[in-house]
Amino acid sequence: MVASHQFYCLFCERLKEIKQSAVVFKTGFYRTRHPLGCCRECQERSSRRPEDSREIPLSDTVSPSK
């Protein structure tokens, strides 16, 4: 595999320079050239605002009516 100076951020879905990374995963590669990870900007945004998370909070789910 060719060493890459970029990684693919899973949150903003962009290729970024490796120096902008907060986390880079050892497994899973985007088109076998760029490691997957999370950039610092996305990590900071998710730590400041949990509502930006892609997860659906349990309190916002709709209960089936009986």
Structure description:
The chain contains one helix and four strands. With 66 residues, the protein is mainly beta. The chain has a four-stranded mixed β-sheet with strand order 2-1-4-3. The N and C termini lie far apart (56 Å).
Radius of gyration computed on alpha carbons: 16 Å
Helix content: 10-25%
What is the count of β-strands?
4
The biggest beta sheet, please?
Answer: 4 strands, mixed
Biggest sheet strand line-up: 2-1-4-3
How much of the residues is beta strand, in percent?
A: 35-45%
Number of helices: 1
Q: Could you report the average pLDDT, rounded to the nearest whole number?
A: 75
Q: Whole-Å distance between the termini?
A: 56 Å
In the predicted model, the low-confidence regions spanning at least 5 consecutive residues are 56-61
Structure class: mainly beta
User: In one word, what is the shape?
Assistant: elongated
The H/E string reads: EEEEH
Provide keyphrases for this structure.
single chain; about 70 residues; four-stranded mixed beta sheet
What are the SSEs and their pairings?
Elements: E1 6-9, E2 14-17, E3 21-30, E4 34-39, H1 40-48
Parallel strand pairs: 1-4
Antiparallel strand pairs: 1-2, 3-4
Outline of this structure?
The chain has 66 residues and is mostly beta strands. It has 1 helix and 4 strands.
